[in-house]
């Protein structure tokens, strides 16, 4: 009975789970316009904000998991101007093989591009790469490229990562099995006497 109560206590330890949501950048709709042959100004770029794959918990510690675990992203403030296209109708061509958006022309949402890292990112390895970005107006004219370096030091350790209750479940099952074997052994010893 004590083992069953212990199992319930371990399994009822609260953990935090949150849905993974990213601000989405829409692709730029390009419409040919023979009257517009002037490219937009080269993009002005901020230093990138890097969010690593297991940084979503804030101060919640190890007892935290989200559906974003393993997904890293980069937030990058961008701006450009054009003689015809309004600032919210200018897209940005992204070039970096480390990004899921590489090769795409995206419109920034509120002046910020949210760029998803390709593959999985658990935050343990260092990130070091360069993003090439050019502004593209509504007619498809392309500005000069600018670059921004992305640097993020990994934490180098996977030992403290949470396992969403799997360890607690295995411990609980082990305790129940030990308790059952202990009772069986005591019962057999008592019946022989």
Structural description of this entry:
With 193 residues, the protein is an alpha+beta fold. The chain has helices spanning 2-11, 166-192; strands at residues 16-18, 26-27, 44-45, 49-51, 64-66, 73-79, 91-95, 105-107, 112-116, 127-136, 142-152. It has two helices and eleven strands; from the N terminus they run H-E-E-E-E-E-E-E-E-E-E-E-H. The strands form three sheets. It has a five-stranded antiparallel sheet, with no helix packed on it. Strands 3, 4, 6 and 9 form a four-stranded antiparallel sheet that branches. Strands 1-5 form a two-stranded parallel sheet. The radius of gyration is 26 Å and the shape is elongated. A hairpin with a 5-residue loop joins strand 10 (127-136) and strand 11. The protein starts with a helix and ends with a helix. The longest helix is centred in the C-terminal third of the chain and has 27 residues, at 166-192.
